[in-house]
Amino acid sequence: MKIALLGAGHIGQTIARLLHATGDYQVTVLDKNAGYLKTLAAEGIATAEVDSDNRAALAAQLRGKDAVVNALPYHLAITAAELALECGCHYFDLTEDVAATKAIKAMAKGAKTAFMPQCGLAPGFIGIVAHHLASGFDTVRDVQMRVGALPAFPTNALKYNLTWSVDGLINEYCHPCEAIHEGETIAALPLEGLEHFSLDGTEYEAFNTSGGLGTLCETWAGKVRNLDYKTVRYPGHRDLMQFLLGDLGLKRDQENLKGIMRRSMPATMQDVVLVFVTVSGMKSGVLLQEVFARKIFATRDGAQPLSAIQITTAAGICAAVDLFREGKLPQQGFIRQEEVKLPDFLANRFGSAYQQSRQVESIS
Predict the structure, then answer these.
(1) For all residues of the chain together, what is the average pLDDT?
(2) Contact 58, 83 (CB under 8 A)
(3) Disulfide: which of 13, 144, 165, 320 matches 119 by Cβ 3.0-4.6 Å?
(4) 3-class SS of residue 160
(5) Closest residue by Cα to residue 170 from 104, 78, 265, 235
(6) Angle at 336 between CA 330 and CA 341, to 5 degrees
(7) Using one digit for the tens of pLDDT, what is the confidence trace for 264-301?
């Protein structure tokens, strides 16, 4: 299968290596950063230096490929999907942006190729888990999804280090959040809905952020009482982000905030990803709750150390492409994450990264 991979950054490089190593994919990585591409080319992975703003040059590289895997920033998702449609390629991406996903869904109507956005951790894997658990109930009451990508050793007041795209981080903190409340689909405010809990003796907070639900609100409309998604951080993070975005007005000057964070907040490869899903409802006349909880840690094994967010995000999109290639997903039109069967995902050579992670021992 011939793959055009857009983006050779933190996640893109991991995707390229995973797909290339199987021998089942001919991967060509497209990026404007010659340094990133040189690293991959030295490993035998095909590359091409292309500016993502140059539509004609990108289209020339996409023609003849079977699929586009987009690991570019969220604001380029619509353009990438348009080019995939134009060039007759299947399309997969990692976007958490609600508007981009709606646009991609619209362009997938009647398409002869497949369009599957939101193939990462959240949205992505978290929706697959929630849908799987909820489908096992006779009637569903409440679905709660909590995900955090956190530094293993926080040292600053925000108790946070950059573990993934700062563009995506700020985007999810600033846009309305979909949810189902008392049977009605609503738009909740980002950074609201603060709650506290502990896993394995460590205290965390969780609050509303945009995009993590994917298409679950649409899929479960009229079938569930409450359904929501919240991002997990260490206690105190939410209050400081509210101060920066609200009190200081940086929500209206996001580029300045992103610049400040890039200059002053170091990235880290020593992180941990938390996945925590609870579903309650009726089974055979009994009210029950089921929980799926995992911690995925960074690894330093092998030639390329991987952060937990690299592992989980790359595993999500690579598993989606792999399951599609194996014919286990629809072959055209818009594909929702909840169309992936959780057992298939966890049994997949890429998705098994979640299966091999450590289960949480205690929740309170």
Answers:
(1) 94
(2) yes
(3) 320
(4) coil
(5) 265
(6) 70
(7) 999 899 999 999 999 999 999 999 999 999 999 998 76
CB 101 within 8 A of CB 210: no
Q: How far apart are CA 43 and CA 358, in angstroms?
A: 31
Q: How far apart are CA 299 and CA 144, in angstroms?
A: 28
Q: Where are the beta strands (DSSP E) in the chain?
A: 2-6, 26-31, 46-49, 67-70, 90-93, 114-116, 139-151, 177-181, 184-188, 195-199, 202-208, 224-233, 271-283, 286-297, 333-334, 358-359
Sign of CA dihedral 337, 339, 343, 348: negative
The strand pairing partners of 149, in sequence order, are 273
Amino acid at 163: T
Tally the C-alpha atoms within 13 A of residue 17's C-alpha that lie toward its C-beta. Answer: 22
184 - beta bridge partners?
181
CB hemisphere CA count around 357 (13 angstroms):
27
Q: Report which of 63, 1, 47, 60 is spatially closest to residue 26, judged by C-alpha positions.
A: 1
Which residues are CB-contacts of 321 (< 8 A; sequence separation ≥ 6)?
A: 1, 3, 19, 25, 67, 69, 92, 119
Beta bridge partners of 180: 185, 227
Q: Token digits for 16?
A: 């390229």
Query: Angle at which helices 308-325 and 10-22 pack, to 10 degrees?
Result: 40
User: Which two tokens mark 140?
Assistant: 């569903």
Q: Rounded CA gap, 14 and 303, in Å?
A: 12
Read off the tokens for 159.
């108790």
Residues facing 140 on adjacent strands: 224, 281
- Residue 299 in tokens: 């690894």
pTM for the predicted model, two decimal places: 0.94
Query: Which contiguous run of DSSP H or E holds residue 254?
Result: helix 254-264
Q: Which two tokens stand for residue 76?
A: 């380029």
C-alpha of 346 from chain center: 16
Whether cis (ω within 30° of 0) applies to the bond prior to 123 is: yes
Give the gyration radius of the chain's Cα atoms. Answer: 20
Residue type, 360: V
